[in-house]
Amino acid sequence: MSRHGLVIHGGAGVIMRDEISAELETAYRSALTAALTAGYAVLDTGGPAVDAVVAAIQVMEDNPLFNAAHGAVLNSEGFCELDASIMDGATRAAGSAAGIEHIRNPIRLARDIMQRSEHVMLGGKGAERFAEAIGYDLVPNTYFQTERRRDQLERARERERVLRTAEGDRLRFVSVDENDDLHLKKFGTVGCAALDRHGNLAAGTSTGGLTNKQFGRIGDSPIVGAGTYADNATCAVSGTGQGEFFIRSVVGHDIAARMAYAGQSLTAAATATMASVVDLGGSGGLIAIDRTGAVATPFNTPGMHRGWRLSSGEAVIALFGDEARG
Length: 326
Known about the structure:
The protein is 34% helix and 23% strand. It is α+β, with helices and mostly antiparallel strands. It has one domain (5-146, 178-320): Glutamine Phosphoribosylpyrophosphate, subunit 1, domain 1, CATH 3.60.20. The longest helix has 23 residues, at 22-44. It starts with a strand and ends in a 6-residue tail after the last strand.
């Protein structure tokens, strides 16, 4: 029986032991465990990697601890814009939903775009009209919003006002990574990469983006080859961090290309690609799994919410930089 398993992330950033309460740490570990359990159950019963990815990510989308769907950050206009994508490594089919505002679980819509349309990426109202046409019920944007995210937006706006006063009235949006508050310096994007019993890989990513992001901004999460990538010949990847840098580094595809063309191992390729993000000035992390079940979780931030579970019996949940890395 072939090895199978999955690896997940719930965001990278300033995640430090002395900056998080014991209660919140427990809550994050429990949430990551629930996501791993949901995804692994699909794999362990012979289900496809694509369905395992959706199962794991949907658990995190429904949990307001993470910056995806319910609990997503607010943009500069004060509402949530959501992005998600998924890729099937067996066929290299992919689906992406960008800039959506009324879909309860964006990762489900990304899978339906992949499986039930002729397109790869649908955005905004067009994506939501497609969703309605295939039976989705839209939800009000207020479903995604939480008081914690409203507070974060107000603090980011205040910092933005200070900067604009100091620098003149130029178009600048202070987003989560620029804010003085350490508790805002976290990219809560969620993702999963999975290997099923049949040797097929898949990856998916879902996010609300950056606090106070400019209305209409699209990051790397819905971009195939950047925030999400899967190919049975090499690996499956999901990223979390400053999306602009992940787009410019074409992170997901770059890892696969290093493996395919340079013969690098998953760990070597993932580490080298993250170094290229750093070289551009970016920060964040990624998760990846290859066709042998090897796992990599490099990040250049103080911490990253992450976990993996393999049929070999290995199971890990980690938050901080001094814990296990794949």
